[in-house]
Design goal:
Layout lengths: L2 E4 L5 E4 L8 E5 L10 H7 L4 E5 L18 H14 L5 E6 L1 H12 L6 E5 L9 H13 L28 H11 L1 H14 L6 H4 L4 E6 L7 H10 L3 E6 L6 H4 L1 H14 L10
Parallel strand pairs: 3-4, 3-5, 5-6, 6-7, 7-8
Antiparallel strand pairs: 1-2, 2-4
Helix pairs in contact: 1-10, 2-3, 4-6
Amino acid sequence: MMVEQFSENGIYSRHNDFIPGRFSLVFIHGLSGSSSAWKYYGERLGNDYNLLFFDLRGHGRSSKYSNYSDYDLEKISADIFDLTKENNLNNILLVGHSYGCLLALDFLSRYKNAVNGAVFLSPNFKIRDIFLVKTLSPLFLVGGLLSSLPFGKRSGHHVDYSRYPNSGDWDARRMAADIGNTTIRVCLYYMKQIYDFDIARKTLSDIVAVPVLIIHGDRDTVLPLSYSIDLAKKLKNAKLVVLRNANHILAMNNAREVADEIEKFVKELALPGQRPRA
């Protein structure tokens, strides 16, 4: 059974019963999505791991803030850190999808000793190299100027992704539901933040010393597989798994395969004082 809660700053989260001595998986969804994208993982992994799902600020049921500065990556990483501390989590593995992977990288750069491992699904870390992002970058600049306009502190809801089975990368119905829920304003805020951050220019091997599992679909038309191949080479301790015939929405479309790979990855790790399991 999942327990729902809100932090003092309006961040929605839910978790199962935390049991000491287990790995704790913290899931970070992608841009304009919400924690409802991880439904299958709660059902599949809840008996064996501590699970924490949450909505990024401005997403899902978490509060939306009016100012661009409220979406600084430093504040988002602090949200994640606070959630882990409030729930007394240890033996933490971050699981991020797409934009959530960039947030995981930012978190690792700020809290290097807080995490035991990470799983990156269709990782987004070379944002400025994407043609569409280059084309739309002037809009991101406009997004930073929206703080002066009225915007009530409110929240959205959780999109029911079962309504979009086998969703394509550019599924108009799913994208409209996501962006309408998150709002164009919040999406532009986030896009400007990640465009300015550009972690690809940092020394990734210095940021990420923990074991990393990278999973990417060979039919991803949002972020090419070559990005993950490059990322795996840049990290000290990374393993790349390529899912055949999988697109960018593999966290939902290929949930069973992804969960299988996560479980195999966790079994290769060891809790403090233990040896990796065979």
